[in-house]
């Protein structure tokens, strides 16, 4: 990995920590009587979560913009994978302690999507127990999302832990799509060609959206006041969807990827 790439990644992580750590610190504030080791542990968890998100955001965009299949794409993708697992894993474990069910759902489902996207890129043969386990997680996540959306709609404020039903419907929709794809994969027994690349792309892009949305929409208060009243933050947060649409159309409609699939099938036979 080039030194320039490493410097860029860690500068991005440092910037993310400086910008968002003060805003997030209240969520992990401990009682004044808490021992030193608990305060150090809380700080370490906070900075690991934010640092993972900052590194993931930078490396995700590098992977999107780099030549697909090239060395930079692979290196950035691997760092993105590790950083996002750190961010989402910490978020999924800590959020229940903060009574934040939508963040719990976001953390665990992002972890699942990123891991299965990476697994899809690595695996080319028959499905294993990991894909079957992923199907179970997706079904559980979808059912939980529908339940939480319903619970939010039944409250007097029409919110659950401060989140409206629409927040849960987003994950209900995504996890349902993921579950259908996992079921198709398990029943078919393998995946290749354009379908394999499309599965990898959309899951990685949604993980990138979680990172960008968490920063540009979830932490608007860290940006200048004048910037909060412009469409810029919304555009930055939603930008992964534009690339998701572009690459899904390119992968599924391009003769290049269909050609890869036909050549792979010919070799297999």
How does this structure look, described?
- The protein is mainly alpha-helical and 269 residues long.
- It has one domain.
- Helices cover 79% and strands 0% of the residues.
- It is built from ten helices and no strands.
- The protein has helices spanning 3-25, 36-65, 71-94, 101-122, 129-154, 165-188, 193-216, 225-228, 232-253, 255-268.
- The longest helix has 30 residues, at 36-65.
How is the topology of this model organized?
Elements: H1 3-25, H2 36-65, H3 71-94, H4 101-122, H5 129-154, H6 165-188, H7 193-216, H8 225-228, H9 232-253, H10 255-268
Helix pairs in contact: 1-2, 2-3, 2-7, 3-4, 4-5, 4-6, 4-7, 5-6, 7-9, 9-10
Name the features.
269 residues, mainly alpha, 10 helices, globular, disordered C terminus
What's the quick description here?
The protein is mostly helical and about 270 residues long.
Globular, elongated, flat, extended or rod-shaped: what is the shape?
A: globular
What is the oligomer described by this structure? single chain
Domain count: 1
Rounded mean pLDDT score: 81
- Rg estimate, integer Å: 20 Å
Structural class: mainly alpha
- Largest sheet, described in full? none
What distance separates the N and C termini?
38 Å
Q: SSE order, as H and E?
A: HHHHHHHHHH
Beta-strand share of residues: under 5%
The number of strands is 0
The percent range for helix content is over 70%
